Amino acid sequence: MRNSAGRFSFGTSVRKRSRNVRTSSSATSQGASFCGREAIILSLRGADWAKMPEGKREEIVEMGFRYWRARGFPYYRLDADAMRKEFLFLLRYDTSKAFVGSEVRGSSTGLALANHFHPQMWRVPMPGVRSPVERFFDDEVLRKVIRKGLRFSPERYALNASNLRRILQTYSRTARVANFRVTAAKALYARYSGEGEHVLDFSAGYGGRLLACLTLPRVYSGIEPCRAQVKGLRRMLTQLLRLVVIPGRAFIEHACAEDFMPTLASGSYSLVFSSPPYFNNECYSAERTQSYLKFPTYERWIEGFLKPVLVEAQRILAPGGHCILNIANVKGFNIADCAYEIGRRHFVHVKTYKLWLSQRPYLRTSGWQMHRLEPIFVFRKLCLRRSKRRIVTRTKKAVPPKGSL
DNA sequence: AGACGAGGCGTTCGTTACGC
DNA sequence: GCGTAACGAACGCCTCGTCT
Fold it and tell me: Which residues constitute the domain of residue A36?
């Protein structure tokens, strides 16, 4: 299995022992004699718990609560071997699998590695919901989460770190920000850039695209205004450089894209690929450098952030270079439609992919789309000699906004 | 070499109860 | 009747280790 050799450092030894421990309702007394509380908690499956008498079940819930309260939030913890393995999976990943028609379907491979360096993502507030960290530190909620984990996970280790994360993020009115799927990013880099070329990510975020780019022979420049994210991105770079042979190179700049991009040389990049923040839909930090705080109204944000960044992207791209933008309309703001219109003014629109996001299991049996989709716009900078003819072609061909999918 | 089992990952929204 | 809050509920994909 993926982490049998210690993908999550904490689970390794316990996992091996768990084969001896997990069996029945007698696990409690047997386990206590040789493995201790930790092994009982981490090796218990929901089905075993369900077979226990009522009093014993409550005892386990309380034991789980005390264990996790003492241990703290179940952040990803990858050891060196697990990181090396995950990076090798990404190196081997066949990018042709990611494209299905006009859809980009990345797998979850590599996400734990990227997320490992950004524990702050579990604390990011989102409108109308609580963060998993906030839920975790509420005693009453943590007990409910533990009970829910035991009830809903009959075949799994119900109270290990992985399952606790799963239950915490699916708890009522709780959500966390998502990283860009590493495999999807790799597929796009592979298709729209070549060996040794320079690529720019003007909102580097949680490193999904950085990690993808490192698996290819490219030179990645990432701009990110949030201090915690920059720290995480640089830690990832440093650690991977120690652990594996990396085909790519990368540079991380702690800056605001709208301020820093004007300092870059014209025509110096082959690809600009990013996923900008969705205005104030996800407040990554309270630093003043955050674009939603610098430009507190939607109109000012468009004029002060999104538009200048796309204009600069056009300038720094070499003729024929591509600008790939993942952005979506969110409640109240048609950001994708707006980005598409700005993009069309400065580039040729080449294609719109649909990026697969989360699954919606409750729609599994219906005929509805099971995945949320977000648009990925691909624009191309005109080649100078042919620009007049291309512009004529473009104006003839009206393309409807692709923001709503 | 291929089949198979197993674990880890991601991820809201429909339904119901209740107050007004 | 309407709005709001609380609550309940799964599986496809990826990869490795083991077995045949």
Answer: 11-73+127-170
